[in-house]
């Protein structure tokens, strides 16, 4: 007989597979780590295949787990869409959503695709810009919701949905880190990467020159790819063709920042509340 795949089991499996850490997934689904582990084992028995490999650093998908993950996501998408429609919870309308440009290719595909599958009648307009510009647009009622970066002051971490370390990057195989003075490609002066780079270099007494400053992440990374400058980017957002410089490079350590979600000042609609909940639930695991 074909086993009955409980959507809760599938949802828990997807949470573990995407987070890669059992304890983190347990927090996301509201279960103890032991209970979640038992549910995964129950699912493995049902499908008669090992889905996960436990390691010292977390969990990894087996070959069967990778294949099953695709099916589990499809089943849950159809399940959630059907339930929402039949219960009259299928949403319609539009909203404007802001995302820092450097995170757009990392976060947006999953956030938008998964929401569209549940609520296909919703139009999400996306604005990509630096956090300072996004905050201005939230205040001006141009945006309804935005992912923004915050400095880690030590007493604001309860606001963070995830923490991101800044890193120095250069072109892969390049030697821009050895230039004297350092040539920097940075965002505009009021942005966190610009401020972090300048303050850390000033404290370290390292000479530098700002060779390129712009609000365009495309232009900034193009200068870095040319081998003429180094830049500061959050680790998650580093393109694969750029090289993260190690501590042995002699460059000063950079701070960690936090990511959170902020609303505009307008009263939230049901659509906005649901989309914010969606972003808050997915962003920590992306």
In short:
With 286 residues, the chain is α/β, with parallel strands linked by helices. The protein contains nine helices and eleven strands. Strands 3, 4, 5, 6, 7, 8, 9, 10 and 11 form a nine-stranded mixed beta sheet that branches.
CATH topology of the largest domain: D-Maltodextrin-Binding Protein, domain 2
Rounded radius of gyration (Å): 22 Å
Q: Regions with pLDDT < 50 over 5+ consecutive residues?
A: none
What is the CATH homology-level superfamily of the largest domain?
A: Periplasmic binding protein-like II
DSSP summary, beta strand count: 11
Query: What is the makeup of the main sheet?
Result: 9 strands, mixed
**Beginning-to-end CA distance, first to last residue:** 36 Å
Number of domains: 3
User: Judging from the principal axes of the Cα atoms, what is the shape?
Assistant: globular
CATH class of the largest domain: Alpha Beta
> Helix and strand string, N-terminal first?
HHHEEHEHEHEEEHEHEEEH
- Beta-strand content: 15-25%
Notes on the structure:
This protein is of the alpha/beta class and 286 residues long. It has three domains: 80 residues, Arc Repressor Mutant, subunit A (Orthogonal Bundle), CATH 1.10.10.10; 98 residues, D-Maltodextrin-Binding Protein, domain 2; 93 residues, D-Maltodextrin-Binding Protein, domain 2 (3-Layer(aba) Sandwich). Helix content is 42%, strand content 24%. The protein has nine helices and eleven strands. The strands form two sheets. Strands 3, 4, 5, 6, 7, 8, 9, 10 and 11 form a nine-stranded mixed sheet that branches. Helix 1 crosses helix 2 and helix 1 crosses helix 4. The longest helix is centred in the first third of the chain and has 24 residues. The radius of gyration is 22 Å and the shape is globular. The mean pLDDT is 90.
